[in-house]
Amino acid sequence: MNTKRKEILAVYEQGPEAVVTLVTTLYDIIAEQQRIIELQAVRITELEERVKKLEEQLKKNSRNSSKPPSTDVFINEKPKTKSRRKKSGKKPGGQKDHPGTTLRMVDVPDEVIIHKVHKCSNCERSLEDFEQQIKNFLIESPVINCDETGMRIEGKRQWLHVASTNKMTCYCPHQKRGSEAMNAMGILPNFNGTVVHDFWKSYYKYDCDHSICNAHLLRELTSVSENDDQLWSKAMNILLIDVKKSVDQIREMSGCMKPERIKEFEDWYGQIIHIGIEENPQLQAKSKKRGRTKQTTAKNLLDRFIGYKNDILRFMHDLKVPFENNLAERDVRMMKVQQKISGTFRSMQGALIFSRVRSYISTVKKNQVPVMDAIRNAIAGMPFIPTIV
């Protein structure tokens, strides 16, 4: 302290110019340090956001997101069991010179049985007619469920699309996920009813009514509640469940919801949206970069509830519309099992044929028709066609 004081006094004795030079130098040092502090503050904010996103990813599971239960590796993870057997030092599997018991082919078999195929072309044609008839029925249906999932064909990631009701199923493999594939499927371009989906934006290119899967929304609301601790997401979660309970009770009595009850739920919905806007104010642009300012996950979800209120609550106004899109997801499940077993289709033609056969079997099972009898009828050129009531 004394040394600094002596240095300052020495400068003071040198005259005003020396003092001005010293103060100017100090101002420059302070300005540079302030600039470094501001840069560090920006960097700290960026790193905090990055850490938050990474923590959110770790917290995601099948309960609060669309991830399957098989990915819940951080929930109640059990320790791996350890074997008490001592290592032998040998390689796993059959050892060298092991005789084995494999059934080998012989040059001269005892018996040869030839299975001739007689009905393949007729069967394929009959299922083509069945598929077109199912598409026509789906186009005329008041409500259909649609979904899409990844499928490997010729070693590449492609897409399987499904459109279904509780009586019919139609699958369509395609290279694309969006409207190009939906147009090729030939259902949505001519559909005028209500399509239930998971908020994939390509569905909104079609001029029909839309209903968003609320099961997905509930998981996203749970994620926002857990990661951001927001009141509006918790309240909206309760509201959707209460509306579903009321709708289920009305369905059991074959009635319809009273207008005053609908208004009560919609007013509650509006109040929750108001709370959400207060918790998620509009962000101001921090730079001159073109495009929209990046928003938080909570704000994006809130905007969806603001902009798509009618599609979210459509199941309350129209009791034929389901609360969620589980029907289409259940229809996709068996196709995913096939992919786990085979891994990939070797050709698009093979994927198309398999999808057509699975469409037939799924439709048959939904109508409580014996599958083997339906297959025999299809081979005979008389496939099962559901009756539309």
Describe it:
- The protein has helices spanning 2-13, 16-59, 120-140, 179-185, 214-228, 231-252, 259-279, 297-307, 309-312, 314-317, 326-342, 348-366, 371-379, and strands spanning 143-153, 156-164, 169-174, 194-197, 209-212.
- By secondary structure, the protein is α/β, with parallel strands linked by helices.
- It has three domains: 3-59; 127-212 and 325-380, 2-Layer Sandwich (Nucleotidyltransferase, domain 5); 214-280 and 298-317, no CATH class.
- A five-stranded mixed β-sheet has the order 3-2-1-4-5, sandwiched between helices.
- Strand 2 (156-164) and strand 3 (169-174) form a beta hairpin.
- The radius of gyration is 32 Å and the shape is extended.
Q: Outline of this structure?
A:
Residues 81-90 have a biased composition (Basic residues). With 389 residues, the chain is of the alpha/beta class.
Distance between the termini: 96 Å
Q: Assign a percent range to the helix content.
A: 40-55%
Percent strand equals 5-15%
Number of strands: 5
Give the CATH level 1 class of the largest domain.
Alpha Beta
Integer-rounded radius of gyration? 32 Å
Topology pattern, helix = H, strand = E = HHHEEEHEEHHHHHHHHH
* Largest sheet descriptor: 5 strands, mixed
Low-confidence stretches: none
Annotated CATH architecture of the largest domain:
2-Layer Sandwich
Our count of helices gives 13
What is the 3D form?
A: extended
